[in-house]
Amino acid sequence: MAPPPRSLDTWIPHGSWLKEPSGDSLWLSMALPTLGLDPWSLLGLFLFQLLLLLLPPTNAGGGGQEPMPRVKYYAGDGRRALSFFHQKGLRDFDTLLLSGDGGTLYVGAREAILALDIQDPGVPRLKNMIPWPASDKKKTECAFKKKSNETQCFNFIRVLVSFNATHLYACGTFAFSPLCTFIELQDSNLLPILEDKVMDGKGQSPFDPAHKHTAVLTDGMLYSGTMSNFLGSEPILMRTLGSQPVLKTDNFLRWLQSDASFVAAIPSTEVVYFFFEETASEFEFFEKLHTSRVARVCKNDVGGEKVLQKKWTTFLKAQLLCAQSGQLPFNIIRHAVLLPSDSQVYAVFTSQWESGGTRSSAVCAFSLEDIKRVFEGKYKELNKETSRWTTFGFSDIDPRPGSCSVGPSSDRALTFMKDHFLMDEQVVGIPLLVKSGVEYTRLAVETAQSTDGHGHVVMYLGTTTGSLHKAVVSGDSGAHLVEEIQLFSDPEPVRNLQLAPIQGAVFAGFSGGIWKVPRANCSVYESCVDCILARDPHCAWDPKSSICRLLPTHIPKSWRQDMERGNPDWACASGPMARSQPPQRRPQIIKEVLAAPNSILELPCPHPSALASYRWSHGTAAVPGASSTVYNGSLLLLLRDGVGGLYQCWATENGFSYPVVSYWVDSEDQPLALDPELAGIPRERVEAPLTRVGGGAALAAQRSYWPHFLTVTVLLALVLSGVLILLLASPLGALRARGKVQGCDTLPPGDKAPLSKEKHLHPCKEHRTSANAVDADNNRLGTEVA
Questions:
Q1: Residue 91 has what pLDDT?
Q2: Cβ(702)–Cβ(609) below 8 Å
Q3: pTM
Q4: Nearest CA among 61, 71, 19 for reference residue 630
């Protein structure tokens, strides 16, 4: 007895038509013609369900714990207008310096120093350039020492600071023979370098351009951290220029490990902080453990008279800890900057350990008060008998060793400082942003004021692959990524970042030039909902002009933002707040699609936000599962009777849902009547990609799924052929064994040939058999095989 009839949707659930039990599938094949489906409709259903099996499952967007950029711009994307400066014949735009008035950007490149005018919008304009190449003699000596005359034996500018209103101070590698010089300025233009102004740069600039370094000029004195020898095995912290005596660290006392790598120098009121990473000497592991450090020297340090002559007498260092609870620490510091407005040091870290085959990065904030407190705490002491570091309490020497006291310290205090330079306590940072699969190289930080008057910390982060991330710190909840901008088509690291607040831009230096990146791109947010959800402190919604605008210095009270929650229900409401109406969720425009029956339509859905999750609806209900599926965000729809009408792609972000795109799907044979509720909404006729499966017509679309069908057909044929061969292999083998001619002597497997030459195998003899004998043998063989 046949089962009772059921609806087509019951028999063809979403994505599982070919997975029904064999009995139901047989009944379905018999029942489909009774439902009024012609052969071409059956073919369309078959191809569509086969297509559902071929398409891999897609993951919904959003919902992840790790922050990800809401918007990503690829290289050359016209929505994010960038300006690019380059100069023919110049490479390695590594060092950037902003003038005091903010109108000139000085650039240290390979064997040249440039002055760029950045006051006008658009591409920076070259004001003038002075060459500073390494001499031919130095280049020859560099090549003789087994260095590359194509990539290393040049003068790479590594130090470029403003000495005073009329002079810059610059240092370069000079083909592994560092030199420094003063450069005179005239109306922000660079004057040629004079030979008598060039001096030895050892201890101020590295020998090798690949070595990390840092330098800062404060109170007329240059504090630098670099490698002081050709081999790059002697790190040094050094003070030069100014009226104070030249001081440096003691290599013999091993205050710094031989692999120390300096990334930043930050001056404070009384001290200068150096940030670097090195091998940890206080831990014992099988593998070399790297650790991040902060070192401190006092500005009024004059060195010792008998002990530590011309050496620092206030050098102290402590460990920096940037880690999430229960996770391995991010132990390699890459860069650090100070935000004076909140007395916080922001630093980017990576880890020497990989997670899932990729490295991760983190941004941590350190308070200057916490750093100061650690340097006023207990010391560590090396037990020379056990070679272990132990905690040493507070010293009874007054004034405290290492403090910035006025006047020279006693010999007892200096002797104590020689062995007690490592602090016992760690400086613990607050992780603001943790991102896997990304290595941050540089960062720049500023404060942006929102419409409610609160300041928000904005971070610009350069990566090893040439991207720029914009992150906003959101109180105690960490940071969220507003956007990612891919600067270069070919991956390479961002060498340097320089903020220009007056121009509202950040400059990124790399090997081939300089990118000027406006710090916000408000015009890309076309609706109030999108503008509010972006949570960019530089952008706000202007309800009068219905445009997302860049915030001016004086912010109008009517402009809307919601940096803390990003709630469009509140910010985009119309009317007075007491009687406000929620934002409209009606589509702004409806795209009309007209297609032939039994066509497979592809309805694209743009994804304006990577943080949102997306779903499709058919009118007020869900999309019909038997005739549709979602692949890469697009809706694949088999156009049959009853499947036309309004299709909308909805985005849900921060708990707010809104339509991203709306389609009105019509059949060429039976157009649907317009929905009265959609009256007044503008319409636009579009041609969606489609595959025609009726009438044997070929593909009439931008994208074809026939290759998928043909691929599966070929694979299915191969599988069936293989199964058939396996089934026939055993009977054919038996027939072959029985079909051998009797009388041929053969050796069993594994037996050796006879040693005697007299014993031979009987040769095969020719036999003549009758037809009856053959038939009898065949009958007997057939019986045995069966």
A1: 94
A2: no
A3: 0.80
A4: 61
DSSP 8-30: HHHHS-TT-GGGS-HHHHHHHHH
The pLDDT tens digits of the residues spanning 684-698 come to 888 776 654 443 333
Which of 131-145, 348-362, 469-483, 747-761 shows the highest mean pLDDT? 131-145
Contacts of 41 (CB under 8 A, 6+ apart): 597, 598, 640, 694
Ramachandran area for residue 564 (φ above 0: left; ψ -120 to 50: alpha; else beta):
alpha
**In this predicted model, which residue has the larger pLDDT, 606 or 32?**
606
* Cα(30)–Cα(27) distance, integer angstroms: 5
pLDDT at residue 222, rounded to an integer:
97
For 568-586, the three-class secondary structure string (H helix, E strand, C coil) is HHHHCCECCHHHCECCCCC
Contacts of 68 (CB under 8 A, 6+ apart): 481, 610, 611
Average pLDDT of 657-678? Answer: 78
* Residue 467 to residue 87: CA distance in whole angstroms: 22
* CATH class of the domain comprising 590-701: mainly beta
pLDDT at 756: 42
Instruction: Return d(Cα 236, Cα 204) in angstroms, integer.
Output: 9
Q: Residue 399: is the preceding peptide bond cis (ω within 30°)?
A: yes
Pairing relation of β-strands 590-595 and 683-686?
Answer: parallel
Amino acid at 624: P
392-410 residues labelled b (16+ CB within 10 A) or e (exposed): beebeeeeebbebeeeebb
Question: Can you say how many angstroms the Cα of residue 432 is from the centroid of all Cα atoms in its chain?
Answer: 16
| Dist CA 209 CA 534 (whole Å) | 40
Q: Are 109 and 92 in contact (CB under 8 A)?
A: yes
Residue type, position 158, single letter: R
What DSSP state is assigned to residue 457? E
DSSP labels for 524-568?
Answer: G--SHHHHHHH--TTEEEETTTTEEEE--SS--TT-B--TTT--H
Longest pairwise C-alpha distance within the chain: 127
Residue 350, classed as helix, strand or coil, is strand
Give residue 571's pLDDT: 85
Protein fold of 461-492+503-572: ligand-binding face of the semaphorins, domain 2 (3.30.1680)
Residue 20, burial from CB neighbour count under 10 angstroms (0-12, 13-18, 19+): middle
pLDDT at 548 over 80: yes
What is d(CA 260, CA 272) in angstroms, rounded to the nearest whole number?
Answer: 18
Residue 605: CB atoms within 10 A of its CB come to 20
> For the chain, percent helix, then strand, then coil, each to nearest 5?
20, 35, 45
Residue 432: name the closest of 537, 333, 341, 348 by CA: 348
Residue whose structure tokens are 């919601």: 562
571 backbone dihedrals φ, ψ, rounded to 5°: -75, -30
Query: What's the mean pLDDT when you consider all of the chain?
Result: 81
For the chain, the straight-line distance linking the first and the last C-alpha, in angstroms and rounded, comes to 37
- Of 3.40.50.150, 2.130.10.10, 2.40.50.100, 3.40.718.10, the CATH number of 86-210 is 2.130.10.10
Domain boundaries, the chain: 86-210, 461-492+503-572, 590-701
Q: With a cut of 50, say whether residue 15 has pLDDT above it.
A: no
Give Rg (Cα) of the chain: 38
